[in-house]
Structures
1.
Amino acid sequence: MSRVTALLRLEAMETMRAVPITEYRHRRLSPRPLVVVPVSMAGEAGAPLAAIVGQARHAPTLLIVEQPRDRVQRFEFTADLGREVMGHINSCRIDRRNKPKTRGEAQSLYTDAPQILVPNSGGIGFLATLGRACRFRETGGDYPVPAGVPEFGRWLTFLADSAEQAGTSMLMAVTDLLAEHWATGQSGLEDRNLASLMAWIEPPTGTSVEQAILDAEDPILWPPAGPVTDPNFDTKDLGPALRQLDAARAHGDHIALAAARTELRELLSGQINPTWRMMWQAIALLRGIPEAPRVERRFTNDREQFTYFSDLQDSPDARPQPARDGAVAAARRLDRLERALADFEAATAMDDKFVLADRRSVGEAFAGEVIDTEPDRTVLSDKNRATLRPLITLRTLDPTRLADGTELISPHMPDGHKATIMSTVWEGSASIVTIEVNGGMGTPAKPNRSAVPDIGRRIAYLPNPGWRPRAVFPDRADTPWTHTDAEAPDTDDGVIPDDAHAEEWGDDD
């Protein structure tokens, strides 16, 4: 935790009210997201109990499994849920246009991408587990599943994998979104409770934050926001209701069966509806935060991934993702996630002064006053030609932990401005940082004066993630036997090639 975040949490604790920690919202919110609140039985991993799903607050669809331990009923529930989710996904697979590229040919992309919102990270885990349970199933043979279930499983796996990547907005937990924009006086673990988090940000009218937090911990007033029910509810209410339904079915009593089904539906509706209403309240809060300028670029990346995977599913050789990654595929995934995280952190700091301040407090960026410049400095290039390389000297009170040679970008300079740390000298509590400008400065004959700030101006710098070529990993034949698994193919099926994101920061040469 950074110094700024720690201070804001202390402020929230002292005032008993959540404190905003960003100037902008750094995730896209679709005009019509698909909200899904899944629920499973406590202690029954992979046994769905119910789900409420919909794209409008006042028009939800409640799906229920009458016997979660029954395999047939589980997959019938999955097929019903799949029809709702796939309807949303397919609505984004209609309009397609060319996206001009700076390298190569134009790329045809869908103009929209799906967005599914769940209450917390447990909801993402539930959908990931459901995807694994479905994508290898067959619609024929000895144990068939309803049509569409395998395809639904592949899409769930794709969405769950995308949720691991920083900055994407196709599958998101609302608690994570809220925690990105508000600091509370509770722990990060408690921030995963949607009711508790909302109590800090916007308590119910006429209720204090303290009372709202206490109410959020009461499973009767605020049932768990999924994916697992409260064990006491399972014991006192759900268990007897399921047994009553099973008994009515066994005796063929249609009247008792209808009554038991109605009772079960009312029970589960009472458990899940409070979370449904709170989800839309949280979405309304998030819409009130202005969207950051670079969100549109990340949405384009989402559309690229969505288009790539959609085309893969439409191809004749479409197949489910492997059960687990091989050594090379796992390394590629890790590399992809690390690069996406670096890009997201840099983009949010470039857009948002509060995020930038947070990075400055831990030495991952710095800001200071320009005390000297050499705008006409030139050096000899490899081809023995004079190249313009201005110098900027800043005095900063921020902790400076960036090494010499670190490439930099600045939110206060024109696009294309790039620089490199030449040296850092400490003078008491201050640091004197000398920076060489090596991007956007023009030529000796036509220098770009705006690339060199005036003396006395305050500017900030942070590390430039830059464009990086795709990492090179060994072929499967060259992988050591200690890292080889015959059952885990080293493929990246369903993952967009890394070089598709090359335009985020541009080429460094």
2.
Amino acid sequence: MNVIVVGGGVAGAASALALRRLGMEVTLYEAYAEPAGQVGSFLSLASNGLRVLRSLGVLDRVQRAGIDVPGQRMWSSSGKLLGDVPRGRRRGDTLHSVTLMRGDLVEALRAEALAAGAAVVTGERLVDAVTTGTGVQAVFASGRTEGASLLLGADGIWSATRSVLDPHAPTPEYAGIYSISGIAEGIETEPGFFNMTFARNGAFIHLAAPGGKVWWSAQVSCPAQPELGLTEKEWHRRLTGLYRHEQVPHAILAATVELHRPTLMHKLGAVPVRHNDRIALLGDAGHPVGAGQGASMALEDAMVLARSLVAEPSVPAALSAYDAARSVRIAKMVKAASGNRDAKTAGPLARRMRDLVMPVAVPLFFDKATAWLYTHDCGELPTSRMDGDSQARSSRL
């Protein structure tokens, strides 16, 4: 059985690795020349995503590339502590959240996939895919065509695969928030904590990084989509003004030595068609969630899809089982992410209510409210590449 994976980000590289671990032939096609490059800033992996990495045999490598972050602290605009909870895990779970640069995560997954025997082809952008009774034919912008038993669309929120599956699929919309990240130096920050300030103009995140650095991200509430063509100096001046009321964020911005390019945050309506008999969507292509769970949910998708391909008697049955297994959990995560986004764009009255309620509610309800998310375990891949039963299944796919 051979598989085409479209998109070389977290979902694509993880699925390529998982399928190679099962002995399938995998070719990953990426539109950009360097799929693992430093696109974006840092991201976090929660315990549910880290369990997938452990099953794939890449957890240690990812942990070495990132920062161990056991705790999370939430702050009001005035500097009041609103909550102090475990980061991305339940209390007592020794599998700590990891924060790392997105490019480093993709590089680790891609390197492991290559070592496992996956092929990576860059500079190829999918434009069409035609299914047949026994497979799928992918068409790329260069004119290249390739056939496979299965095509996986892991090509992000602007997915071409999603449009191939359904020409009437929803398209991304600006979500009322844009993000700018950077690195500061010389600001004393306690290690091991992911700090989130609910500021007047949107959330501000920061954490201690190696070498006395501070990684930060400003998630700015802005109902009208902003123009992104400002210079770094202009962006810095704008951010300094927006966060002038928040003491710690303002100090971090003043000490910033590196600014990453701004990105617009988007939302996507429910995707009604996530698979057919030979094509399936993974990660942001089918369900962008954010809320610190984008990468972890993409990893879960890769694991569940791989396990379904082994467990089911055919590709169509496997894709149906994969979608059924993921649909309820993803819908719940999308709803949680929407609430998370609303909290970052709250008005003055909602902020005052939050500042009163959170110090009481968080200690009482955090563990119960997050158990469904952080305790989830997608299971393990088979210990051998493909046992006899799986080989027989593969011959029928």
3.
Amino acid sequence: MPDRAPYDLLLRNGTVIDGSGAPRIQADVAILGDRIAAVAPTGSIAADRAKDSIDIAGRVVAPGFIDVHTHDDRAVIDGPDMLPKISQGVTTVVVGNCGISLSPLTLKGAPPPPLNLLGDEAAYEFPSFADYRGRLGEVVPGVNVAALIGHSSLRIGTMADVGRKADAGEIDAMRRLLADSLDAGAIGFSTGLYYKPNAAADADEVAALAELLADRGGVYATHMRDEHDKVLDSLEESFSTARRARVPVVISHHKCAGPHNWGRSRETLPVIEEASRHQPVGLDAYPYTAGSTVLDPDHVTGDIRIMVAWSKARPEMAGRDLAEIAAEWGCTEKEAAVRLHPAGAIYFQMDEADVRRILSFPLTMIGSDGLPHDSHPHPRLWGTFPRVLGHYSRDLGLFPLETAVHKMTGLSAMRFNLADRGLVREGHAADLVVFDPNHIADAATFEAPKTPSRGLDFVLVNGRMSWRAGETEVDRAGRLLAQTA
């Protein structure tokens, strides 16, 4: 007699937004093991055909969100439940962005900024990506992990002086480390040309490394050299480098930073669109007018609000504005930044109209760029994806919900070559999120940044019921998503 319950779980009566950008449909979704076994018209699969069934009438079932821009390299090890991400529907994080990766690197001494965003010297304990991959397998994080290898990390691991261009021997050493990492499952390479450990590298050095991705299906992601006055020059450098290396490029957290550059997305987006006609191009963005990174006195200009996210020297100052601290200390903001160093900060440097324009751009994916180790983090760490779905899609009508989901699922999986992720399709991995489209919303604020979002019911990772609304424990089922050329 045939098994009456061939499925493990049936999600009944839901609205499926499948991640492709296609219109929503009413359908039931059946899961077997770690795969989506069926997507069928509502009512066509009897409830007793599954060992468990959940009526999700009035709810949306969508692919688990893919956070394409994170600095979760260490967080997936030290805080493997990954509550800030899974509680907002994220089932996969791309780590190693902005030229900063936890491997392959060990250190003797404090990590130079911005590598200190991932932790202290002890955090850098993985001389090879294979070592990092092994640790992930041991801890089993709550979300899947796809990893980029950072250029700054390669430079610090092979160069005595990162303040200059690498010589031929150093480039060869970096190439070997990068090749080994890619062969062990890393999905690509990232640069942080804005930052001091990476700034001396020219396009020749970057291309010599990025070209290793071409035959491996890898992606090149870049925090460009300049997102301020020379943003157009930096875009051209990024596109040119990727063409030379024959690889896809992703422009990280695209923005037009600084008040005198506000409105320039009207210039940058047509340039990106034109480039995309001739080469594979993507970009990501977060839905806020503030960014966050290390507090660098050289970048304290006095023309924008800056909030302290953490400070080793004065930890009690986290969450306070730099201008307020400077006034209290009777010094300039730049002098206050020096006294707080090493530290991190939130920079209110973008214009809302630019943010909306960039989010609406068809090639834009969603990435949080959250910093999980900050004592007072930017609210994007906890709120990015519900903010796009609730505030920008539903409340402002910036784009349909189908488009919003596509920007955080199907488009992301395609751009980062994550096979069988990002779509609600038979045979695809059962990474799924169920949410209330009428009430999903971010709750994290700059004053209370660790507040969980609202309107999410539950999240499945690789077929496992990993998280439910209101819970603080996660049934972890994440895995490394290795590159498949």
